[in-house]
Specification:
Strand 6, helix 10 and strand 7 form a beta-alpha-beta unit. This protein is an alpha/beta fold. It has a single domain, classed as TIM Barrel (Alpha-Beta Barrel).
Length: 287
């Protein structure tokens, strides 16, 4: 095993972005990342990771309250893919619309206890909520009870980038301080993952990683050559135990990410930590 990719969006028919986001938004996201979205078979997607000797953690999708698109079955499809290809897909993040209230809590419990998923993931910019809004604290309380991690999007997003008004998507939802910092302080027993280098607030991200022992980060969503210099410095230095490899497949091809990251000249032990050792420890992976 070369690495564990902790941030993978399925590219199969159940996750067709035109159905989840709408064709206009997909068109602009495709331009932003410079990728052409292709719907793949289950086998084709598994092979993308198998040929690179990678293990992957998949992500569901649910932004129904804001988007109007019913994607409530994506968590089930993540579980199906894990069961079908256990040699490649080793876990899954349930994504749940937090505005669904008690139904969201029931869905979280179902995803963990019945589907066997391993954590909860949010994309606040597209779900339109601030993490420290106490209306959503019951979800975090359930995560603590279930002993599972929760991950929050941080920094800018390719969704809506270049569109008039950013398609109505507000970046303030994904600012690390105070929103994620508050949750980390209020739930010290909750393992929190900040998703992506949090540009333009990456210095806030670094501050939280230094200050809160229960907070970590993945490096998905950015090709490494675009990482802010302070992020690269911390990855190779005092925060080398806090960062995990994530690609954001299919937006960022895993091979490109790995080739660029390994070209930074980090010490071999740092590379091993980021590529798989940190994920094994932080996410309690038995692999």
């Amino acid at each position: 095993m070369k690495a564990i990719d902790v941030h993978v969006h399925p590219s199969t028919a159940a996750f067709d972005r035109k159905c989840m986001w709408g064709p206009e938004l997909v068109e602009y996201v495709s331009k932003y990342y410079g990728v052409e979205y292709k719907v793949k078979t289950d086998e084709e997607m598994a092979q993308d990771f198998r040929e690179l000797d990678l293990k992957a953690i998949l992500i569901g999708w649910d932004t129904e309250t804001v988007s109007g698109f019913d994607t409530s079955n994506t968590n089930d499809d993540v579980a199906r893919l894990i069961k079908k290809f256990p040699d490649v897909f080793i876990g899954g993040w349930a994504m749940i619309d937090p505005w669904k209230g008690k139904a969201a809590i029931r869905e979280l419990e179902r995803c963990i206890k019945e589907l066997g998923l391993m954590g909860l993931k949010f994309q606040q910019a597209l779900q339109a909520f601030y993490p420290n809004d106490r209306r959503f604290y019951p979800l975090y309380e359930k995560c603590v009870e279930l002993k599972i991690p929760v991950s929050f999007h941080t920094g800018t997003t390719g969704a809506g980038a270049g569109m008039p008004g950013g398609y109505g998507i507000r970046l303030s939802y994904t600012k690390p301080i105070p929103y994620i910092d508050d949750v980390a302080a209020d739930f010290p027993d909750l393992t929190i993952i900040m998703i992506h280098p949090a540009w333009p607030w990456h210095e806030e991200q670094i501050a939280i990683l230094l200050h809160k022992a229960n907070v970590f980060a993945d490096l998905s969503g950015w090709a490494p050559k675009y990482f802010p210099e302070s992020i690269k410095r911390e990855v190779g230095g005092r925060l080398q135990d806090k960062f995990m490899f994530g690609s954001d497949y299919p937006e960022i091809p895993p091979k490109r990410w790995l080739d660029e990251f390994e070209g930074f000249g980090f010490k071999p032990e740092v590379i091993k930590k980021v590529l798989y050792k940190n994920a094994q420890r932080i996410l309690n992976l038995k692999i």
